[in-house]
């Protein structure tokens, strides 16, 4: 029968599972691991061999293991045989239980006695560490079954039996059955059984190793006894040789004794008379001596006979010992042969282990294919549902067609009658006449409309001419645009210097500032005329202009701890400079107040000079002097406060990170407000940033508004709520604030510690406007997870809290004019981007063989907030996908820096990966221009500027959906987003799976659709990420707040 494509794919994949992925598990009880024949004793070797023979006879023949699953009929036929074999195995030797498990949880179950080497206890301990489990395929299990049979281990017949739990998985090509939920539940049950079997298997392996160690110990004992018997045999041989020599010596003595007897007898007969006559006494003595010698010889002879009999007994014992030694040698040979067999089987098992590792990889790949096939099946089912709907619609259409055919038949019947046809023709002619009349009327109406249009065009031309004349008249009074912003900033600083030096009154200085705001030509001309004159004449010439009217522009002063590019740590410096320049271009007066750090880049400050004035400010119950410096940064007038405090607050070589940062910046905040008061400035808005200048808000309302500095509205921007600058409440008194009044839950008291104050909370409470750097981040910080303890305060003050997405400095980040690039380029000419990619690769030593090889860039601080673990994963995943990766950045966290240094050393000479663990401004521009993709996997990101800069340079962002990333990067595969806003790739969950999904989609689109990718690059480069939109929102907030304040003042 034919099968559906989706069902056929599933059948093929699960058939492959049956042939390649079917894995068996042994459940080995620890007390039944080895048969009795494996435990040999030297005392009764013959009985152990007999038992081994009985064991082999008791083990039934085991069927081979097939790769595929049997049909139900075959399984039923083999049930009786299986039960019989199981009963037989239980009476003889315990069997091995086998379970089929899923390939995700399958482990190496090939534990057998063959894993033993003849290497002693130490080698066995090393082999015992092999606890990693791997997949076993059907062929390996068959060979394992045969080895078990050779060792007499019963129970391998169960390998061919398929449990009922696995039968639903036996999908074949003919059936085309699909997976069901019941099968998945069975699969999870089998996985749990497999985990239990793994534990039993490990326990069995440990007991097997212990038994094997005991066998080896017994073998060593037997070998020792064999050696002792050999020594005793050598000693017996020596003793036998000595006994033989003594026997020969005894026989010689007996011969000599007989000779002596004969001689004595002969002498007795011949000399009897002579002896009796001559010496009877001598004869007696001689006879006595000879009798004594004879007695001694007899005693020696008897002792020798006893020794010979003892030697004969020992010789017989030696012969028995020789026979036992021969039997022991035979058993030793058998042991050595069995050990050699075990070693050969161990080598074969090691080869099987290497095969199993490859099978495990194939198993994982097959499961991934199964998952993909399941996804295809889901899609197919959805398509089938849609097809069913289409069929239903088609049926409805067929019904309509039938109705139309019926009506057509009726129409044909009507056409048969000529009279009705004539009536129909007459009606049609009447309708045609009516249409012609309507056409005539419409022509007349169109003609009248044309006449009206011509008249309106004439009127428009008249009004246009009048507007041109009026614009020419107004052009004489409009601001001058031929002077750079540095000129007007220098002019403002000069006027403020004269005011502080008491050369101008406050009112005159205000009028002159108004003229500068309006950029009037007359004040420009006066300045140009008096450049060659002395200061007194110049002041008098400027005083002649003090009759000019006031301007309606806003006067904004930023009090901040950073400003790019001279004092930049993070995004705060970019915001202060970018927002200030944008507001200045919109016609507002913007000034900046900064601490005078010793580590600033002073070459970025124009016309830096110290004013001839000393400012005193309160701190710790005393008045401390401050030097005031002025300069111009990026066309903006900037005041620098240099405290003459013994603590040398800003002469530390660092911007942040000191132990007394709370004191340093609370001193600066009060000195900045003291400067505004002493200089007589009346700003409309005082804008402070982050916790370092958050003290400005409570200081302004509690201390300086009563002193007369009361014209401003306070705007506070928090760029990152993770950094809140909390400190003991007592330290707040140093800058003159009332601790008892402010250390309250509704003011500055920290929400998590009642004995500490929180500057961020104080700024939120005391400011008129509170902003953060993106709309999504503004929503995130109002939750308990993202608010870092301030979510309740932010929700209470939600009416004045808003998120405004930051912009970027499009003048500094512009590939058309960027002098740090080798080749400038634009959205309409991308050849320069390709050349920059080649140049950057060569500069960093990367391969340039494939110009189309995708290059992924990443420029960031390596801190947990930025998702360093995901960056690390992206490096390796990019390499796996065939791309190149560039990382630029460093970490203030020591262990993170060391970790990435290790990765950098590992890829030091790699042709596709390069890590530069520092910040290099020039190299950053090159990486933005060279990269095809740019990854930002932040755990949380208040705004983020790198994704905007990357798009400005034609690098497609791959970002996590959080904070400002969610407000600026929109997925190209998200159909809910309009096509014109789709500009990158996003993922939601901060894990490796999310990164993989976004990277793989980007790589596939880059490789498979070059034309579409180029269009995406061009679209991203044309997106406007400038400060214009953000500045207009801030301008609206400023204006509304100032208008409300003025309305309230006029009513009072």
TrEMBL record:
Residues 287-390, 418-445 form a coiled coil. It is an enzyme of class 2 (transferase). Residues 41-95 are annotated as: Disordered. Pfam families: Glyco_trans_1_4, Glyco_transf_5. Belongs to the glycosyltransferase 1 family. Bacterial/plant glycogen synthase subfamily. The keyword Cytoplasm does not apply. Keywords: Coiled coil, Glycosyltransferase, Starch biosynthesis, Transferase, Transit peptide. Its EC number is 2.4.1.21. Residues 556-795 form the Starch synthase catalytic domain. Pathway: Glycan biosynthesis; starch biosynthesis. It catalyses: [(1->4)-alpha-D-glucosyl](n) + ADP-alpha-D-glucose = [(1->4)-alpha-D-glucosyl](n+1) + ADP + H(+). InterPro entries: GS/SS (IPR011835), Starch_synth_cat_dom (IPR013534). This is starch synthase. Residues 41-55 have a biased composition (Basic residues). It comes from the Eukaryota. Residues 76-87 have a biased composition (Acidic residues).
């Amino acid at each position: 029968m034919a099968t559906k494509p989706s069902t056929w794919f599933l059948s093929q994949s699960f058939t492959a599972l049956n042939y390649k992925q079917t894995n068996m598990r042994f459940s080995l009880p620890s007390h039944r691991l080895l048969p009795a024949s494996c435990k040999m004793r030297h005392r009764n070797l013959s009985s152990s061999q007999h038992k081994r023979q009985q064991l082999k006879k008791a083990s039934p023949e085991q069927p081979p293991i097939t790769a595929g699953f049997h049909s139900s009929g075959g399984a039923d036929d083999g049930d009786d045989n299986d039960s019989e074999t199981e009963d037989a195995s239980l009476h003889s030797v315990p069997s091995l239980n086998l379970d089929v498990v899923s390939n995700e949880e399958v482990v190496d179950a090939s534990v057998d006695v063959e894993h033993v080497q003849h290497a002693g206890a130490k080698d066995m301990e090393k082999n015992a560490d092999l606890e990693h489990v791997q997949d076993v395929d059907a062929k390996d299990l068959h060979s394992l079954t045969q080895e078990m049979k050779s060792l007499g281990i019963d129970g391998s017949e169960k390998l061919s039996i398929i449990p009922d739990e696995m039968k639903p998985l036996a999908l074949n090509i003919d059936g085309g059955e699909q997976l069901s939920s019941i099968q998945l539940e069975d699969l999870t049950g089998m996985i749990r059984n497999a985990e239990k079997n793994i534990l039993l298997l490990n326990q069995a392996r440990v007991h097997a190793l212990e038994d094997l160690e005991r066998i080896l110990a017994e073998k060593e004992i037997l070998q020792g006894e064999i050696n002792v018997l050999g020594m005793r045999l050598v000693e017996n041989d020596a003793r036998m040789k000595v006994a033989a020599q003594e026997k020969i010596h005894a026989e010689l003595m007996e011969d000599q004794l007989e000779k002596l007897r004969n001689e004595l007898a002969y002498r007795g007969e011949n000399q009897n008379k002579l002896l009796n006559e001559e010496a009877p006494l001598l004869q007696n003595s001689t006879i006595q001596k000879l009798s004594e010698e004879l007695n001694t010889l007899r005693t020696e002879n008897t002792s020798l006979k006893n020794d010979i009999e003892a030697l004969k007994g020992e010789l017989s014992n030696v012969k028995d010992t020789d026979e036992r030694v021969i039997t022991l040698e035979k058993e030793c040979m058998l042991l050595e042969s069995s050990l050699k067999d075990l070693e050969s089987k161990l080598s074969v098992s090691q080869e099987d282990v290497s095969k199993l590792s490859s099978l495990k990889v194939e198993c994982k790949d097959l499961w991934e294919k199964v998952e993909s096939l399941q996804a295809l099946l889901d899609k197919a089912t959805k398509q089938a549902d849609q097809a069913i709907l289409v069929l239903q619609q088609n049926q409805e259409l067929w019904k309509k067609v039938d109705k139309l055919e019926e009506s057509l038949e009726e129409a044909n019947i009507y056409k048969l009658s000529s009279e009705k046809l004539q009536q129909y023709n007459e009606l049609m002619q009447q309708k045609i006449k009516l249409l012609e009349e309507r056409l005539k009327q419409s022509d007349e109406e169109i003609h009248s409309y044309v006449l009206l249009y011509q008249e309106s065009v004439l009127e428009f031309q008249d009004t246009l001419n009048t507007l041109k004349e009026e614009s020419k008249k107004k052009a004489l009074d409009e601001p001058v645009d031929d002077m750079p912003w540095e000129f007007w900033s220098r002019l403002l600083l000069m006027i403020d210097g004269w005011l502080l030096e008491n050369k101008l009154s406050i009112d005159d200085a205000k009028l002159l500032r108004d003229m500068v705001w309006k950029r009037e030509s007359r004040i420009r001309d006066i300045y140009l005329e008096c450049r060659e004159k002395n200061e007194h004449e110049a002041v008098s010439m400027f005083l002649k202009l003090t009759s000019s009217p006031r301007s309606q522009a806003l006067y904004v002063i930023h009090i901040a701890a950073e400003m790019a590019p001279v004092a930049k740590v993070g995004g705060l410096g970019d915001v202060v400079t970018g927002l200030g320049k944008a507001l200045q271009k919109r016609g507002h007066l913007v000034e900046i107040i900064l601490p005078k750090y010793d580590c600033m880049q002073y070459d970025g400050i124009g016309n830096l000079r110290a004013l001839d004035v000393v400012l005193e400010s309160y701190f710790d119950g005393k008045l401390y002097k401050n030097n005031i410096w002025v300069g111009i940064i990026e066309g903006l007038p900037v005041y620098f406060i240099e405290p003459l405090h013994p603590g040398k607050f800003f002469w530390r070589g660092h911007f942040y990170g000191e132990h007394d940062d709370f004191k340093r910046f609370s001193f600066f905040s009060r000195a900045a407000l003291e400067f505004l008061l002493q200089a007589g400035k009346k700003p409309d808005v005082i804008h402070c940033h982050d916790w370092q200048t958050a003290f400005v808000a409570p200081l302004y309302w509690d201390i300086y508004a009563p002193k007369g500095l009361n014209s401003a509205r306070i705007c506070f921007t928090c760029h990152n709520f993770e950094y809140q600058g909390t400190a003991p409440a007592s330290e707040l008194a140093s800058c003159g604030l009332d601790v008892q009044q402010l250390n309250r839950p509704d003011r500055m008291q920290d929400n998590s510690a009642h004995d500490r104050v929180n500057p961020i909370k104080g700024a939120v409470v005391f400011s008129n406007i509170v902003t953060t750097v993106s709309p999504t981040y503004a929503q995130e910080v109002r939750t308990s997870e993202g608010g870092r303890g301030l979510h309740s305060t932010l929700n209470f003050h939600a009416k004045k809290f808003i998120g405004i997405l930051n912009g970027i400095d499009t003048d500094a980040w512009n590939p058309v004019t960027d002098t740090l690039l080798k080749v400038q380029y634009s959205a309409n000419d991308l050849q320069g981007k390709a050349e920059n990619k080649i140049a950057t690769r060569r500069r960093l030593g990367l391969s340039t063989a494939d110009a189309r090889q995708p290059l992924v860039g990443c420029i960031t601080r390596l801190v947990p907030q930025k998702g360093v673990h995901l960056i690390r994963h992206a490096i390796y995943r990019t390499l796996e996908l065939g791309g190149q990766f560039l990382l630029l950045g460093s970490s203030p966290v020591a262990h993170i820096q060391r970790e990435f240094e290790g990765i950098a050393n590992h890829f030091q000479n790699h042709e596709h990966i390069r890590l530069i663990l520092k910040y290099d401004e020039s190299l950053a521009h090159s990486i933005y221009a060279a990269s095809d993709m740019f990854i930002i996997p932040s755990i949380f990101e208040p705004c983020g500027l790198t994704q905007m800069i990357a798009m400005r340079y034609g690098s497609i962002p791959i970002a996590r959906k959080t904070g400002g990333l969610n407000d600026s990067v929109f997925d190209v595969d998200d159909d809910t987003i309009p096509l014109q806003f789709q500009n990158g790739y996003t993922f939601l969950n901060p894990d490796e799976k999310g990164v993989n999904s976004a990277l793989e989609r980007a790589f596939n689109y880059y490789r498979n659709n070059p034309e579409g990718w180029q269009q995406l690059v061009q679209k991203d480069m044309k997106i406007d990420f400038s400060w214009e939109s953000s500045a207009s929102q801030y301008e609206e907030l400023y204006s509304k707040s100032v208008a409300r304040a003025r309305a309230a003042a006029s009513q009072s």
